[in-house]
Amino acid sequence: GNSVTQMEGPVTLSEEAFLTINCTYTATGYPSLFWYVQYPGEGLQLLLKATKADDKGSNKGFEATYRKETTSFHLEKGSVQVSDSAVYFCALSDRSGGYNKLIFGAGTRLAVHP
Amino acid sequence: DVKVTQSSRYLVKRTGEKVFLECVQDMDHENMFWYRQDPGLGLRLIYFSYDVKMKEKGDIPEGYSVSREKKERFSLILESASTNQTSMYLCATKMGGYGYTFGSGTRLTVV
Q1: Looking at chain A from residue 62 to 101, which residues have their Cβ under 8 Å from any Cβ of chain B?
Q2: pLDDT in tens, A79-94
Q3: Whole-number Å distance between alpha carbons of B58 and B68
Q4: What pLDDT score does A100 carry?
């Protein structure tokens, strides 16, 4: 079945460091891909998405490119801030069974210190 | 903006109790979902509903049931709570296209 694999955390960075969180997927067909973020004590929020190969999603300085050849959707940010500390989830849309639902990775916790 | 409200942030229940988790949305969205979130496992889909009185099993439906009597309300029911159901439960509704809105979650502890 369809699945998403993320790098294990926690990831600990200093402020202004470069961030990469790896995400690879297994899917039949061509799913849409997403990054969600969960700040402490809150639900998940959509961070960015890409709906087809070579699309780049971007938001709040974060970027991810849909790479079909490597089945990857790595999240990057050039300069992280303390306020970026959160748990990040990679997800794909699963249309099997005639219904559209999301399949999530395990999540990667990011801690940014001053 | 769509708002998804989960009735409790924290809940403590005893083993064997019947537990109801409530989720209410303030827009007329047809699709609603229940996930559980566990460290190292991410979010796993329990049940979802695409219309009133309609429901579909997700990946881990065992030990759970759901009810959708009105479009705005989607309830998750633990028929006989067990300690392995201690988890964070997240409700979501689906917006147009592929957008989902999540509630803040209910952290359930079964003792």
Answers
A1: 89, 93, 97, 99-101
A2: 999 999 999 999 998 8
A3: 15
A4: 77
